[in-house]
Amino acid sequence: LGFSLSLCLSLSLLQEDIISVLRDRSHIDETFRLAAEEKAADYAAAIQRLRKIYHTSIKPMEQAYKYNELRQHEISDGEITSKPMVLFLGPWSVGKSSMINYLLGLNDSPYQLYTGAEPTTSEFTVIMHGEKIRSVEGIVMAADSSRSFSPLEKFGQNFLEKLIGIEMPHKLLERVTFVDTPGIIENRKQQERGYPFNDVCQWFIDRADLIFVVFDPTKLDVGLELEMLFRQLKGRESQIRIILNKADNLATQDLMRVYGALFWSLAPLINVTEPPRVYVSSFWPYDYAPDTSRELFKREEISLLEDLNQVIENRMENKIAFIRQHGIRVRIHGLLVDRYVQTFKEKMSFFSDPELVFKEIVDDPDKFYIFKSILAKTNVSKFDLPNRDAYRDFFGINPITNFKPLSGQCSYMGGCLLEKIEKAITNELPALLSSINSGKQPGLSSCEATGCGEKPKNRYRKN
C-alpha cells in the first residue's frame, strides 16, 4: 500500500512537472483575435465583387490574346476565393512542422504533424479549414476545382502521391492556410524525389502571401540546394521572413555569433537593399531552456505573430492588388499583341511572304517601334514591359493571323475589351479597395443589379 501511494504521488508530481514546462499560449489567441467574430458576409460580398470584375473585365482579354500561354499562370476561381497561404521552407529537422503544431495548438492531439530529429516530412502538407478533421489525398485536392490546387496536376501523379491535405475546424484556419514542405537535404539531389521538387516549390512560392524560411542555429548548412531555393525566391523578398528557431539551445553569446554567421552565409543569396526580417526564438509548446534570453524570445515571437496577423488582416486588400497587377499585365500584353498585328498588316503587300515579314518584325521589334509605341501612347511603365524575346516563342506557338486588333474586339452589347479592362484597373478595383478600407458594404451597385446605365455606342452605325 505504501509503495502504491508513493508511486501515485510520484506520477502526480511528474504530471505537474510536465504541465509546468508547457508554455502559455494565450498571447497567440489574443494576437490573432480568435475570440472575435469576423464579418464573414462583408468578406464574401467583396470576394464576389472581385470575382465579377475579373470575369467580366479582365478574363475576356486574357482569353482573346492567350495571356496564360505567355506567363503560364491562369487565375482560377479557387485562387480568387482562397485564403492567404503561409509557406514553410528550410532544411530538414529545423522545426517547421513543430512550429505549425505550436501555432495551431496541435501538440499531443491525434492530428499533430509528425516531428523528429531525423528528416520526417516527405510530403507537401496543406493544413486548411474544414467542417471536420480529415485528411485529403493529393489526387482529390487536384481534382476539386473549388480549391486552388488543381494546377498541381501538371507535376504528375508521383507528386500528387506526395501531396496531402489536412482539414480541421480551427478558428485560425478560417483565415489562413499553412503549407509544410519536405526539408532540403544537401547530400541528396532533388531529382531523386521522383518529381520536379524545385518546380513544385516555385509554384507554392509564387502563390504564397508569407514565406517562412526556418533555420536551426546548431546546423547552418548553406549548400547548393539552399542556394537554388533562394534563387527561386528572387523577387519575393518582401514576403520572406527568416526564422532562427530553437534559439534557446545556445547561450546568448553563441547565439550572437550564429546570427552573424547566418547573415554572412545568406548575404550573397539575398541581394537586396533591405534584408528580410529575422525572428530569433523557439517555436514549440515547451518552456524556454533556463538561463536564456526568454524575454527577448517572447517579444520576437509576438512580433512574428503580429506580422502574420497583418497578412491575415490585409488579405482582401492583397487579393485586390494581386488581381489589379494581373490586369495591368494582361492589358500590356493585349496592347503589344495589337501593335504586332497592326505592324504586320502595314508591312504586308500582295507580293510579300507572310512568314518572312513577321520574322523580321518579331526578330527586331525595336526597328518597328513595337515597345516604344506602347510607352508613348499609353500610361505603361517601361519597368512593366515583358521580355521581348518571350514574344518570339509566343508567336511561334500562336500565329499572328490568329489574333484580331483591339479595334476589332468590340461588340454592341459587350463593349470593347480595352475599355473594360482599363475601367477595371483605374476605377472598379480602386473603388472596391476604398469600400473595404472605409468599411462600406462592397456589394453590387444598383446599375449592375438592374442593368441600367449608358448603353455602349454602336460602332457599326454611321453617324
UniProtKB/TrEMBL annotation:
The keyword Transferase does not apply. Residues 80-321 form the Dynamin-type G domain. One of its GO terms (molecular function) is GTP binding. Its main location: other. It holds the Pfam family EHD_N. It comes from the Eukaryota. Keywords: Glycoprotein, GTP-binding, Membrane, Nucleotide-binding, Sarcoplasmic reticulum, Signal. Coiled coil: none annotated. PANTHER family: SARCALUMENIN, TRANSMEMBRANE GTPASE FZO. This is Sarcalumenin.
